Batch of 4 targets.
Target 1
Amino acid sequence: MALTPLFPLTAFDAPPEAITHVCAGGLALPLKSQHAALTRHMAHKTAGHKGHAEQDRELDAVRNLAARSWGVPVDDIGFVSSVAEGVSILLESRQWEKGDNVFVGKDDFSSVIAPFAVRAQRLGRSVTPTVIYSSSSDDEEAELEKKVNSKTRVIAVSYVSYLNGARVDLTAYRRAADRVGAILLVDFTQAAGYLPIDASVADFAFSSCFKFLLGTTGTAIAFWNRARQPDWKPATAGCFSLTLRQALLNWEREEPVETRDSALCFSRGNPGHVSIYILREALEFLSQWEAAEIEEHVLTLTTELLRRLDEEGIRCSTPREKSRHGANVTIDCVGASEIVNSLYTAGVYAWNGTGRVRFSFHGYNCMKDVDRIMEVFPGLWREWNA
């Protein structure tokens, strides 16, 4: 019944016990061990070329942890500075023809949509794809059947929605991509860290690390499914994304440019080592539990909060069934910003934006946090939505 936290609270730089921290979908709690990660990074940075070798070892350790967590080969894992950067690199790598299109969810996060939408507006449709938006249909298969066509080159989707917490059926998206020969691009940001991830369903995938993965900004995980897309190459490069021999050659010789044959080619410059060190502590911490165990704990809390909100007559935009939502419970309402500020004053740290209040649970939460939300939120909601 999730009566106690799954994660030991002593492992976190947590706020006082009186605070209910339910905003992991925006910013998760940091780990105490991450202070030591910063110290370790500084020690390596002062150690000359020996320290540089230590940085490489940290990078390899994090890639191995991420690969095990996502069930993929380690060479399929690399890093970008953000999900938007990863999506942009993929966009740049494609040869677009007039009439090509990209299928995205109209309610998806801007990191997924903006690279395609902005390019279409800036450069015109003759050199960039038309963006086709899905509706908020409950029938994903029908929506994909209706809008994905022979000119669809990329299908881009978040596994769990930041907006309403809905979880999509990625196998349906895989079937649609295979039907027309499109690339399936998945954003795992609102899922990685508490849901089991099988990244192999995607051709490319990315995830921010400062939410449920317990890391920080500056690094996002990048996945290139080399079994599905063996011939893919980035269209741009930097020193780090090249092979070592290529990075050191005499450019006047005009030799063919060779990028790494691994997902490390996503990093055009040196990876963000500070955030990599912090991410290592987070992934090692999370690896103490099976993802399914964290999922069960988190979804016990979400379904209980959804049930109690229903009893209060408060309508949520999050699907009720466990299999159809993630860690977020969202309520579209008037006065969302003011309500979240009042919640904060009352010691409940939630999230707001686009006219909704969002509560996000993680392994450090428990049923007491649901109780506290229900003590404070319904009254504030009624002040604005009676």
Note: The domain at 37-286 is CATH 3.40.640.10 (Aspartate Aminotransferase; domain 2).
Target 2
Amino acid sequence: MIRANTGRKWLPTYEALASEVRLSVLELLAEREMNVKELAKALELSGPIMTMHIRKLEEGGLIRTQMVRRDGGTHKMCSLATDGVEIAFPNSEPRHRRPIQEASVPVGHYTRYEVHPTCGLATREKLIGQFDDPRYFLEPERMNAQILWFGRGYVEYQIPNYLLPGQQAREIEISVEIGSEAPGVSKSWPSDIHFYLNGVLLGVWTSPGDSGEGRGQLTPAWWHDGLNQYGWLKIIRIDDNGTYVDGQRVSDVRLADVPLSRNDWTIRFAVPADAERVGGLTLYGEAFGNYEQDIAFRVYG
């Protein structure tokens, strides 16, 4: 899910949507991956015109493309890069009712962990240590990690609590690009990823797989094609009514059920050994995957 607002950087996304032809392309790609020639034929357009529309959709972050050898030729294959666009308009409420705490947490800034192979982590420039050796999760350079993955276990992050005396949290939102971790990559590799806040299990989201079809839009060029490429942007929200993932209720856990600490918030992403589907976990930072962000943590009053 692309979370956009009225900032100017989102203009390419809005421009990509402002076309009946491009909306038709999105509908076709929702059914299956297609090449440019197939799309042009389906919509009765010339190849150059379709290429222009594909470029607009790519610039808007709505589709991804890759060159594939097939049937003796090279084809530009197109697929969806996101499952939707959510637009947030400016808030006209008084300033004191806007977010009162916001933090962007790099994926390497975990404070506790327990990981089991397959596992590893990397900065935007290089792999940290070696594949499948949990010892490197203690490497000081892990603070610069932009991607990490493990077959089972957890990573935990502590975030300062800057609420003032008398202030009360009404809603907490965690946004992260996340997916499974298969040996290599696998489109179908389900994993039950557990989300915790201050030690309380908020809910479980089942990741469908570990995608390696096409490259992540932000993934560095040195990262080879057989490794994790991108995940799904998940938005976990907890308020006075319950806990939601992408707006879908996942549990009855309310904010009042979470013990509060005066000093910090603790969030944990885990795949326990006793989960029904133990398919690992991959976290993507701002330099990997499809979404230019680290782990976003917001507290609303």
Note: The first helix runs from residue 11 to 17.
Target 3
Amino acid sequence: MPVLWVDVTDLLHYLGQHNRPSGIQRVVSELGRALVECAPEHIRFVRRFAGPYDFETVSWLDIKSLFSTTAEKPVPREQTRTSLPSPHDPGPFTPPQGRLALLKASADMQAATFRHLNRLTGSLAGRIRRAVRHRSRHHHASFLHTDSGALLSELARPGDIFLVPGSPWDFSDYARTVRWLRDSRRMTFGLLIHDMFPIFNPEWCDRGVIASFTAWHRTVLPLADHVFTTSTATARDVQNHARQERISLISEPVRIGVGTTLHNSVPGLRRPETLPPPGTYVLFVSTLEARKNHIQMVRVWRRLLEERGSANVPTLVFAGRVGWLVSDLMQQLEAMQWLGGKIRHIASPTDTELAFLHEGCLFTVFPSLAEGWGLPVSESLASGKPCLASNSTAIPEAGGLLTRYFDPENANDIFRVVSETLDHPQALTEWGERIRRTYRPPQWRDCARRILDQTGCQQS
């Protein structure tokens, strides 16, 4: 039976460079776990360590360990933020021993990350020696179970499948990899596309991402034997892009959906004191970037405060790291003193903190202008919490009939939906009860099965 080789190069790179996994990284990790559960004898993971033909195996246990460590490791930061420091304000005095403690915590965090990455690396000479020793087909079966460091060029067989589930757009020579896989190794190539925003909505993206994303897909997409998408909306975008670029797709895009991972708070674990009290806030989980539309929620919350008064408006909590194209937003929040504390920013929350934040919120909001799926919406529902969300792109696919929608570009519409929800607390309670009673979270195993069915890999 064929083996499905999953490229996790960009996942490992991201986890080594960032404090917390973001949306695509969570999708890749959860999808990898589900693939292993569904077909453990036919799933292997690889990463690129040098040129376009140089891939080595990576143990799934190592990937899981690194992801878990990144999702929960302490990050030196202000635990919550209601205002930004002024350049004229030196801030609170930190004694020398305190500064040393902060430096040590930062160094320890970086050292832990590099220890995980080093376990995945090893010496090139050692990899080659191991590959030579296990070159024969007699050792093929046992070699597939090697933890890490074996060469894909020695293991791959005709008929195997190579899957890219992440975002390796920085490799401008990736088309060479695909041609080598297809022409020399006689493998098929699969590609999971999360969204096409750098092409269709470049105004929301970093200039470098636009260039690398566009060039990468222009050369790689025509070579894909299997194209998978997270949503029907993304599948339409892929087809539109192919028509515009006159790309002849080998096969039509297949929607696999996105599962939900429900992170419940651990029984007996005390709620962190840095989080706002339960029942006092509305939650917005997302990286702070232009496409996520935080600025619109700031306008809505300012109007709520003007019309209702501070005592009658819950706090709006932004939970996520600061991304790109939001410097103006952060400056405006500083100038407004974070609306007197009615907007708070919890930067890079751990999965445990996210579980507590979901558990204690009144409801969640997600006003994103465009999404390839809308993971915060389905995670809100999986937590039993009502969500008010954008009616744009794929978000209704994630929210279904249990979510209330608004036009993300219309502040009056958002204000109306938020106001109606706040005005009817009993209806909000009943809405939450209905979600907990009827919502069936999408399963990652179903996403994995669609890939395995399409590629012909056997399932357990």
Note: Residues 78-117, 119-146 have pLDDT under 50 and may be disordered.
Target 4
Amino acid sequence: MSDEFHKPTKFSGGKFETFKGGEDPAQISRVAHETANALLARVRNDPDPEVVDRLVAFTDQNGIDAIAELWARANPKSLPGALWRIYLIRLLIRQDPEGTSFLFQRGTEVMATIDPVVAGASMPTGPTEIIDLADRILRGVFEGDFAVALDRAAAFCRVTAAGCTSVADDLDVTEPERASELTTRALRFTKTAEELTSCARLWRHESLE
């Protein structure tokens, strides 16, 4: 992932790495946790629909820069780390709804788990349905069960990872470079799913900070 964002920022499907560097890691961590806790507490205590709408659509008007500056370097298994990943997933979906919905739909066809149900996308899943899923997951962060929102995002990642792997297998002989890219993306989705699942578990134990 690039060390700098420029509005409007564009991400490829594989860009899940967090930022590196920083003058004062302790201060960066403190600001990340303080802002994440303050935002979530304020909105969840009074989930005004207009405020939630603005937060869901924040990156559409403002790019990802401000959120990345606050939360991208946070520990993956922390509140700011979880929020960063939810916003990043939504951005990735909205930048390529056709490609993402294709990979997600493929994942639903090859998986034998309940992850497609947990994710909660309408079936069959096209671009409109995958965008709606991204918005509903993020909205759930602010006005629903926070752990459930994280579980849904993790399920989305696992389903999409399965889709990436399946398509990579199809392309392994004819388009090996594309197959390798999809395999790498599948690994990143899988890692993100593990991180979000850990965050959901910590939240349920009142230990996500």
Note: Residues 1-22 have pLDDT under 50 and may be disordered.
